[in-house]
Task: inverse folding
């Protein structure tokens, strides 16, 4: 007998008491919550066991903001590149920026805090040679070098909290713009703590304080047409202030340049190999954020309430896989579930009692409108998230946005009822025990490692990018596979070698990016350690442009391990004799269609005669396997997410680890289906990851098998 | 009344007297020639006005070669990269090489002449730490760094002339392998001159000495399966010898390292930006070759014969667009015509009285066999070459290979009759006057400039490469267009600025290659000069990855000029708002099918709001136009050769030059047709570049027009 209630949080709002009461039953909700712009009434709060109340620490109090304009948050921004047509160059620094969001900060001397750079030579222009005119928002450079390009890196005030701005514009609100205040300023810090105490006093009915989030938002900048201009979910552009930079200098012993934060206009995107300066800045802010966050959480606990952090919005510095996170002492983390990857990003978070997922679609008018397909979005979201939940569960689920919008879509309301039931069933059957995992770990190797656990190859939370999906598919496939996954950096390898329990290392990405590793592959310790490890039996999987940095006649630095190389034009004179292997191979045993390599990779060729090329297109190698000593390596040109590619990756991992023999444990024959087993709970489940009916056979741990049929998106639980 | 005879050279051979006599009439041949492995009889030599006799300077005399094994030619080769599994590494240096072609040179102390390099660190291994074992052809490194990669750069004797090897293997010969001797050795030099004098004495019937070629072959290395391993038609790997290197040191004042020639195994491919050391080496050898070649040519002239150089084979150092070529004093150059580009490579050669083209297919068994299509190959070859001849004619034509093979294909013999007639007609009508050209030049800008005139984006003479055809198409299109074309290097721009008569600059290629320019784009003088020139009205066309080298926040360094930028992963956070222009545009006015961009280019985006995007695919910009001051710029993602793309490029050039108004002079409406006019001769011709009948209208210089129909591959001459 399954529980029909619990584990579900409902977004509620004033005026919908009747509907909410019905939904609390239908969805089995045991908690209600408010949202940005909504309030809960006493009546609503009485409907469920728990009440969540949102709390913004650094926005929402316009009075404080207005009274302390000198303590608003900043960011460092860069102007466009401007070409000098004459020796006098005028750079309109606000060109392309949204003046409702950005205001150049002239209260702090531009000559001290800004940087004008000749981008042709890379030289900083002496402050004596330029001036800023606030009326026109222009920097004028005298004595410019004609036909060189110049930029201005400037400090600006944030006039509008970016998430409030986003919600406001997306939902067509007509509200006052929330300004954000910076707790690096002692008065604001004190205010925040006092305000929290008052707030806690004022919210006796609140059980869970939903912190959205702590202090500094990820980078989200709009353009002069009020459209998104720059978004980096991992960005630190909005964490700066003159005060923080001065504190940094005291703590770290050196001064940062604006360029350390502006980074040529790349703003230290996670696709960049992080500089020491940027890592130091992250570390400095993480420490600051975690210390103040801990004070806040302690206070919340003092009032007998739980502290739940939203993974998103003002989350800069709270990175859950970073080294200071555990100090904060949070009870829970809630985050948006875009797919399996982002589910694992939440569910794998350590040092909290539980995690909660916010499922898609958000109840926003972009989906909940005539012609919208909220059921379709919910199905896709659930189908991808479910795989991940079976491997590493979140404890609770919920939805975001504005309930009134969802109520107009009864099919959606019905479908959510089914999903919430299925979610509870998973917990009931698995009894919070661990699902079966292979006896070796899979490591994703890149320049970031642990702190970006389930966060590699992302620009913005779960958003599709043409340059990413062919790599992101690896994460998405892995999110629902029976492997423990570890994210490892090149520094980890240099400091600790490769952990004993790692069976396979995956390196995936475009050359030059942090994900592939760029210059890390010139490090002799890195390449030597990996070569030795593979030679002694390790498995190495490269996707796209792995181990790539042109050096000493080689582009893929581990061409010896991979057995393939990429032609970048310098060795076109070398004849390439790619030869597709005619033997059947373990890793392709379940392929029934041409492999979808996504954006794929051109010009890869067989560099060892012994390499087995398993797939070629237009003369280029797309899949190849190689043996290196006792170890094995696989190259794949790209791996977008699909059930077929998930199976390809599963087989690739077992083969690379030289563990083909154990793959067939809790394994299904039909690639559209997967099995998760809970040996301690004595249960296993088989799921259908497609919209069609599927027949499949499950191989159990003892070698016995069972055939079954699953409805579209269906699932069946069995006793072991 | 057209001449039915003349301008044609026939490859002849002993025993085919009757057939040759017939063909002399049918093809109107006025010259016969021998080939590698064939001889002419007195009877044959009497059939035509002129007799060509091949002459090899550095091969063909096995007695000399065997008696002077210490004066054979060398090359510098690199072993494979070998990974150190232990501290003792064994590198089989001959692995992958053909022992009938390559023999490691131990007569010159390997410790002095070879280099063992740790390719992980780039460090040279001390000669004390390695030893060479000639029995096993292995280098053993002691004290290697485990898991590093090592190579051996070694000096080797050439045991087999590469062209003789190629002919021998391709034609299944059973002949003694020609060895090549090196005229840097004084005895061999003297021998060559003496031999030449004897040869001239012995060949009283020879009118034209066809030099094949002077002294050093381009790089052509076979592998251990006797298949092509490495081919670089521009290569200098076979120009080295200890003696020449010692002379170099005296002349240039410094010593070259093996690495300067081996270049990490890239062997200074023309796709590499040339190093100063390599340019010095080329200069040194060009000077040497031209001086000795002049002595040979003077001697030939002494005997009243013409000296004709074959552009190919042992042509290293004779570069016809190099600065020493004119000193040689040649009468003529003959070369293989692969297409329009290679025709222009020959026909534009300065400082000779005439040029001759060797048309395809060669009479070799790879084409002249059952199932072969010699007529098809001849048609394609002629159709592409004809366009180029009309703009810059060769004076003579001919075929290569073995006549006996062609005689079995009567359709082919018939088709050649038509082609030779058409060729003579062109000369009769044009009366050797210049065809009409636009009043501005088109410059191709790359790292090589003039010396590689019509030679950019080539690996091996006219051979298709996947990485090249999308750029090579520009040359092929240009070869038959009414423009004077100039090849310009970055150094030219730095030293001389941009010549007055240049209207349009084209920069095309993959990032990192010499054709795109790589680090040349970091040179402030280069970018400033071009920006200023465009701003004042110049036209700039970028294809593929023009002006590309990641620096200071930009990948395309002239993004301001081009109006587009390429995303390489670092600025994915920046939103891209590519918007296809809805206006019709001059450059696309003749497009009737989706443009074929060949390998194309991904991730290019609009970087200026003012840029007009004319073509997009999957969100990426494929064609864009931009205005920069008074000048204009066009970006195209790739441009393989086709009549449609030729028209696109024609329009692009006129538009970029701001000269749209004058395009319609001797211009045809149908893109499958073209017109060439000879104002001084009072004639114009219209050609059909397709295998279908075409209707077209020609616009004459005075604005009048004429409609006509052309047969497949047809042509019509008119009086102006």
Result:
């Amino acid at each position: 007998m399954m529980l029909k209630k619990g584990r579900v949080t409902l977004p509620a709002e004033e005026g919908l008491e009747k509907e909410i009461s019905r939904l609390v039953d239908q969805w089995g909700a045991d908690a209600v919550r408010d949202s940005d712009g909504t309030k809960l009434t006493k009546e609503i709060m009485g409907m469920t066991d728990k009440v969540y109340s949102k709390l913004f620490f650094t926005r929402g109090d316009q009075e404080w903001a207005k009274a302390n304009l000198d303590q608003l948050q900043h960011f460092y921004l860069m102007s466009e590149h401007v070409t000098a047509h004459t020796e006098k160059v005028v750079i309109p620094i606000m060109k392309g920026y949204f003046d409702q969001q950005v205001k150049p900060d002239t209260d702090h001397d531009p000559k001290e805090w800004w940087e004008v750079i000749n981008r042709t030579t890379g030289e900083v222009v002496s402050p004596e040679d330029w001036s800023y005119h606030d009326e026109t928002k222009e920097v004028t450079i005298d004595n410019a070098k004609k036909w060189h390009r110049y930029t201005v890196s400037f400090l600006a005030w944030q006039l509008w909290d970016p998430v409030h701005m986003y919600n406001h514009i997306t939902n067509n609100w007509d509200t006052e713009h929330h300004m954000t205040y910076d707790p690096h300023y002692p008065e604001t810090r004190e205010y925040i703590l006092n305000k929290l105490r008052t707030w806690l006093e004022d919210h006796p009915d609140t059980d869970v304080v939903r912190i959205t989030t702590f202090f500094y938002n990820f980078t989200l900048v709009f353009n002069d047409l009020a459209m998104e201009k720059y978004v980096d979910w991992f960005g630190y552009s909005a964490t700066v202030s003159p005060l923080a930079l001065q504190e940094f200098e005291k703590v770290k012993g050196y001064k940062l340049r604006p360029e350390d934060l502006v980074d040529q206009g790349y703003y230290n995107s996670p696709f960049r190999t992080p500089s020491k300066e940027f890592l130091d800045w992250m570390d400095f802010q993480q420490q600051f954020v975690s210390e103040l966050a801990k004070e806040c959480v302690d206070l919340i606990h003092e009032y007998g309430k739980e502290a739940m952090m939203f993974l998103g919005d003002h989350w800069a510095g709270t990175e859950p896989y970073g080294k200071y996170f555990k100090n904060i002492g949070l009870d829970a983390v809630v985050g948006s579930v875009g797919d399996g990857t982002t589910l694992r990003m939440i569910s794998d978070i350590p040092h909290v009692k539980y995690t909660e997922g916010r499922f898609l679609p958000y109840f926003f008018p972009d989906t909940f409108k005539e012609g919208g397909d909220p059921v379709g979005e919910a199905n896709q979201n659930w189908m991808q998230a479910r795989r991940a939940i079976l491997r590493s569960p979140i404890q609770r689920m919920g939805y975001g946005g504005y309930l009134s919008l969802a109520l107009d879509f009864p099919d959606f309301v019905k479908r959510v009822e089914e999903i919430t039931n299925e979610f509870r069933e998973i917990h009931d059957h698995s009894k919070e025990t661990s699902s079966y995992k292979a006896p070796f770990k899979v490591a994703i190797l890149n320049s970031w490692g642990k702190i970006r656990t389930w966060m590699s190859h992302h620009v913005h939370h779960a958003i599709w990018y043409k340059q990413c999906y062919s790599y992101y598919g690896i994460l998405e496939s892995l999110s629902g596979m029976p492997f423990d996954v570890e994210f490892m950096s090149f520094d980890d390898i240099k400091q600790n070698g490769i952990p004993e329990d790692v069976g396979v290392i995956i390196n995936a990405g475009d050359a030059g990016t942090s994900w592939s590793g760029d210059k890390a592959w010139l490090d002799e310790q890195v390449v030597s350690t990996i070569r030795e490890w593979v030679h002694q039996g390790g498995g190495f999987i490269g996707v796209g442009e792995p181990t790539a940095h042109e050096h000493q006649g080689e582009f893929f630095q581990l061409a010896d391990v991979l057995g393939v190389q990429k032609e970048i034009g310098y060795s076109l004179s070398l004849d390439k004799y790619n030869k597709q292997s005619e033997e059947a191979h373990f890793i392709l045993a379940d392929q029934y269609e041409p492999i979808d390599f996504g954006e794929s990779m051109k010009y890869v060729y067989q560099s060892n005669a012994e390499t087995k090329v398993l797939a070629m297109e237009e003369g280029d190698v797309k899949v190849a396997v190689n043996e290196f000593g006792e170890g094995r390596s696989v190259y794949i040109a790209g791996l977008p997410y699909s059930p077929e590619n998930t199976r390809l990756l599963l087989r690739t991992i077992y083969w690379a680890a030289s563990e083909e023999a154990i793959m067939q444990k809790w394994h299904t024959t039909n690639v559209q289906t997967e099995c998760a087993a809970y040996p301690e709970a004595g249960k296993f489940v088989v799921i259908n990851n497609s919209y069609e009916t599927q027949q499949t056979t499950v191989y159990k741990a003892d070698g016995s098998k069972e055939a079954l049929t699953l409805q579209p998106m269906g699932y069946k639980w069995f006793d072991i």
User: Anything to note?
Assistant: Chain A has a mean pLDDT of 96. The first helix of chain A runs from residue 17 to 26.
